[in-house]
Specification:
single chain; seven-stranded mixed β-sheet; five-stranded antiparallel β-sheet; 15 helices
């Protein structure tokens, strides 16, 4: 490779001295990973959420693993990145299983409040004003809704998995192509980042992406989209439920949010809507109604991570105490203090519908949250 600037200068391939140098480069210059586009056609721009992002393997435990980098884009699609130098023998033997481990557990145990706090901590460490960071990422978009969308996408498996190295063996490229063809909601790429050095501090980075062919070949129905559930779609899904009490319960929950707060469309593969309410001078996500392929799993889940983040744990604890002791929900609420209230305890709609006074109790608890202490 040559650079022509007055005179011709040869650039020679040069490896990265350490994995730490490689990781620092990606954290400081995520644009080397920007390929593709957002749902509206704008160029993809990744924003760093955290380095060494902790990954728990249970709801009650702390971080067991550490993901090298977590990025996010303006559509709320999380991007998990693992970095390996070609000299690391684990690049073929372990890295794929490691990444799948991270993705599976992140989908279950990374609530919106944790993701937001990690991003804001990263901004603080880098000395970057939050207002500037959010403006660059979202423009004028609402912050709470953005992180709720990121959490929903994780739970639905709508994410990117990026293996980054200075050189990839053919075997790993084949695995990436295979995974990308098989995983419907998740895009998998291998990004080969070659470094060239010239005289002085001159460096050139050349990214080469493997896996895009498999992504392009995915059927339109399986490709990740930003389609949002409308109220009409929710109502149609509710009407398809056989149990009239479940239909009444789901409709009452949505109507309550529409009249006392507002409904926001979900972005998961299944119909869902988030229930926002005015609490202490701001509009917060309080719960989500989700309708799955199996009607027995339809549920309402409560956004305790967001509530604890904005209102404090004491207020979140009072809301938990006000919710009715519905079977299944009762046990999940009892586990909240041990989780620092970073969780989405849920109750199936069939259980809420079957328990006398449960629906009314949920609506009363939400009204108490709106009315304040």
């Amino acid at each position: 490779m040559f650079v022509l600037s007055g005179e011709l200068q040869a650039l020679e391939p040069a490896g990265f001295a350490t994995e730490a140098e490689f990781q620092e480069l990606l954290a400081r210059h995520p644009r080397v990973l920007d390929f593709g586009s957002l749902a509206d056609g704008r160029p993809l721009r990744l924003t760093l959420v955290a380095r060494e992002m902790g990954v728990p393997t249970s709801a009650d435990g702390g971080a067991v693993y550490a993901l090298d980098h977590l990025f996010v884009d303006a559509d709320g699609v999380p991007t998990l990145v693992e970095v390996k130098r070609a000299t690391d023998t684990r690049i073929r033997r372990e890295v794929v299983g490691q990444m799948l481990d991270y993705a599976a557990n992140a989908a279950r145990y990374w609530p919106a409040a944790l993701l937001r706090r990690s991003f804001e901590d990263t901004c603080a460490k880098d000395g970057r004003p939050l207002e500037e960071a959010y403006r660059d990422l979202l423009g004028e978009g609402p912050v709470d809704e953005f992180w709720a969308t990121v959490e929903e996408r994780l739970a639905a498996g709508q994410m990117r998995l990026l293996f980054v190295a200075d050189r990839f063996p053919l075997e790993l490229r084949a695995i990436v192509e295979f995974l990308n063809r098989q995983l419907r909601q998740t895009d998998v790429y291998a990004v080969e980042l070659t470094q060239y050095r010239g005289d002085g501090d001159l460096r050139v980075l050349v990214p080469r992406v493997h896996g895009e062919v498999a992504t392009a070949a995915k059927s339109p129905s399986s490709a990740r989209t930003s389609r949002r559930t409308t109220r009409e779609e929710m109502d149609a899904a509710i009407r398809a439920r056989r149990d009239p009490d479940v239909r009444r319960t789901a409709t009452a929950l949505l109507d309550h949010a529409a009249s006392r707060g507002r409904l926001e469309p979900g972005t998961a593969r299944y119909p869902s809507m988030r229930m926002y309410y005015p609490v202490s001078g701001r509009t917060l996500p309080v719960a989500t109604v989700s309708l799955y392929g199996d009607p027995a799993k339809d549920d309402i889940s409560f956004a305790f991570g967001s509530l604890a983040h904005h209102l404090g744990r004491e207020r979140a604890a009072r809301f938990a105490a006000d919710l009715p002791p519905v079977p299944g929900l009762k046990e999940r609420l009892a586990a909240l203090p041990a989780k620092g209230y970073n969780a989405w305890p849920h109750a199936t709609l069939s259980t809420v519908a079957a328990e006398p006074g449960a629906l009314e109790g949920i609506l009363a608890a939400i009204q108490g949250l709106i009315d304040g202490p």
